[in-house]
Amino acid sequence: MTIDWWTLGIQTINVAILVWLLGRFFWRPVAAMIEQRRNVAQTMLKEAEAGQNKAAAALTDIEKTRAGFSAERDAILAAARDEAAKAATSRLAEEATAAAGREAAARAAIAQDRADAEKAWARSAASLATDIAGRLAGRLDGTAVRAAFLDWLLQGIRALPETVRQAAAAEGAGLLATTATPLDPAEQDRCRALIGEAFGSAVEIAFKVDPALIAGFELSGPHLEVANSWRADLARIQKDLAHGD
Amino acid sequence: MTSPLSSVALFHLGPVPISEGVVATWAIMLVLILGGLLLGRRLSLVPSALQAFLELIVEAVDSQIRDTMRVEPGPYRAFIGTLFVFIFLANWTTLVPGVEPPTAHLETDAALALLVFLAVIWFGVRAGGARGYLASFASPNLVMVPLNIVESLTRSFSMMVRLFGNVMSGVFVAGIVLSLAGLLVPIPLMALDLLTGAVQAYIFAVLAMVFIAGVVEDAKRPADAAPERKLP
Q: What is the ipTM of this complex?
């Protein structure tokens, strides 16, 4: 066994050259590419992490903004509720006031209508009563009734002030005596005598018949008016009824 | 049949005989260099299948260097990786009919062992300087200096003989069986030879890493540890 030293040297040089060439053109570029890819991957991971952090921050901002929106919406809704409550209260108060006014007006109108109706009914009732009383009194006309009214007339004359009686008697002017039924001459004279006595002096009296008196004896003159009949009484009663309330 | 222990010159370049192993080595170099050049121009961040495969090889070499040497693989990648790839391809050239693996000849294995021997010196000096490298022979103490010197020679010799013996024996046995039994009988032996070739490439690269790592570690050892190397 021998060793060819030429071959040994050539092979040594060959492998050394191969080591140098492969190191330059294969191992180093491939390793650099691996390292570059690793760096790129790390850069991408960092960028992705930064992007993720950025997205998380943006998400946080969005959450805050959304929370702000919610709070603002709640505030707006609360303000709207308060405003609506105030408006409703005000509107209710206005409507209550208006309703109270309308109710008062309606009550007043109802009261007025009721009063008017009562007045109308009173007038109607008074008129009806007057008619009834007139018809009833028509049947009672007679001597006793005339005597009673003549007494009431004389009491009325005597109740007049003295100056009035003297003035009515001094004028000498004729007085007008109105009765519901005609009087015969004797009765007229008797009435003249009693009335003159009541005035304190003789007076000229003319007689007139007016069935509207129903019953009674009225005396009138230029300055004198003595209403003494059922018509006058009924009219007074009716007037009192009409104004009684 | 030619003896595998002899190196037959195919032709001469002047006084230099060019053997079959040298030609096969040139062919392997040509394939590797051209492949490296072509691939180096086509590297991209998005790798092709071929680039991914070659990157896998680089990553495997780097990982092996980290695991074995406990250092970053950058300075050692080219040497260790080239040794492994070259020996692997050289061992597998037995698949090419009529071609004997360059590693089946003692000169090629001796050249590889010589390169490892020189690389140990180179990386040791680079790590701790000439003084640090020489001090590494005194590890763990000065008594070990002669033994360490002998060891540095014998371990290179053992690497050479181991690789040569395994590859040559495979080729030799396959040739004998082929000459005796016929065409298809040596196929299982050739397959075994391929496995042996791959394993021997791995062993050679790992041993180179171990030798370099030992020297680098000793050369880097701090000066305060030096008294421990002295004789008691």
A: 0.89
